[in-house]
Structures are given as C-alpha cells and as structure tokens.
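re: that complex we talked abt at group meeting.

here r the seqs, copy pasted straight from the sheet so there may be weird spacing, ignore it
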Amino acid sequence: DAGVIQSPRHEVTEMGQEVTLRCKPISGHNSLFWYRQTMMRGLELLIYFNNNVPIDDSGMPEDRFSAKMPNASFSTLKIQPSEPRDSAVYFCASSFRTGSSYEQYFGPGTRLTVT
Amino acid sequence: SQQGEEDPQALSIQEGENATMNCSYKTSINNLQWYRQNSGRGLVHLILIRSNEREKHSGRLRVTLDTSKKSSSLLITASRAADTASYFCATDDRTSGSARQLTFGSGTQLTVLP
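got the structure back, here u go
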C-alpha cells in the first residue's frame, strides 16, 4: 500500500487566493482526519470524517475553511480566501476503527505558505 | 491546555544512552499512543498501550502507563542517531464517546548525538 497520499507537497500562494489541499487515505480505512501543525500551536485537529461523514469540525478555525469527503478514497481541505496566518503544515491521516483501539496513519503533509 | 503534555520539551543524549520521555494527561482514556515525527515528515505510530495495561515493549521501546497518575513514559534503550526526532503522546479520550479522535501533546524533541 502506498500509504496516505497528499498533494501538493508544497504550496505557495498570495493572500486572498483559494487553496485546495487533497488527500487519498489508505484503502479500507473508514476514518479520515485533517490536522494543522505550527510551531506556536503544535498539532491541531481541524476536522474528521467517519465513513465519509463529517463527525467533528469544531477545530476548523473559521468559515474560510471547509472540508469535503465525496467518497471513501478522496478528501479535500479548502481555504478561501487564504491569509498569511494560515501558513502551516497540513496533515491528513486515516485509520480503521475497530474495537477499542486504533492507530492513525499520517500522510507526508502539505507545507502551505501564504504571502 | 492540551490533553497530553510531554516532558521534557527537548532532550539531548549521546548515542548508546537511554532516553526517557514522559506524558501527562487529564481525562480518562481508552488508550494512549506514542508517535514519532522526523523533520519534514508526517507522524508515525510507534506503540499503543490500553488503559488496562501497565507496560508494553516493542523492540527498543518500552512504554508504561499509570492511570492513577494519568501519566505515561516512553523509554528508548540504546539510542541511535536515527532516533533523533520529535516524539508525541496521543490519548484516545474515553469521554469523547463516538468521536474517538486522538488528542496530541506538544511533543519532545530528542536529539541523539553520534
């Protein structure tokens, strides 16, 4: 298995532009998570899906952020309009919920720079 | 504050020495997991310990869990330069019900000097 795939790996954009980050989870996994990591705030959970349904989006910073999971093999995180404070590394992770324990598999991340 | 807090924030040791990192948390948990993050990479799962377990081993890793103190420790024995990374604990919060997301701590940056 190729693991969790994220694209692009790096994105540089100007303030006000729309940014779309993409994620392909591991085949067979039924939970998908979007995280943001910065030096100041560490690793923050933005939103997560179970069986393609958004379960908890309380971590989404504001209405400029939206996430979708149209099918089991694809998810997007969109920022519109982007701002410099959105600069961070965005990770997607997937897992297979079973029983009382599970582990998350992380993608390589997308490093976003908003100028 | 975060559910999991690692201690120390940074640790520097010589190759061959043991490294111990600690994690404290606040709520009841289903399990606690440790992850490693190499610079510029995603997190990688290392080991999971359930709330009814006290100790677990995996290769050079040893994890302990004390639910009465709400704390865990990760011991890496005979460290290598390749162990240089950030290490995070993550808790599966029992009170989250069906949500079952993990809450990550702020991490310990381990540097192993050759």
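couple things i noticed - The longest strand of chain B covers residues 29-37. The CA atoms of residues 12 and 111 of chain B lie 5 Å apart.
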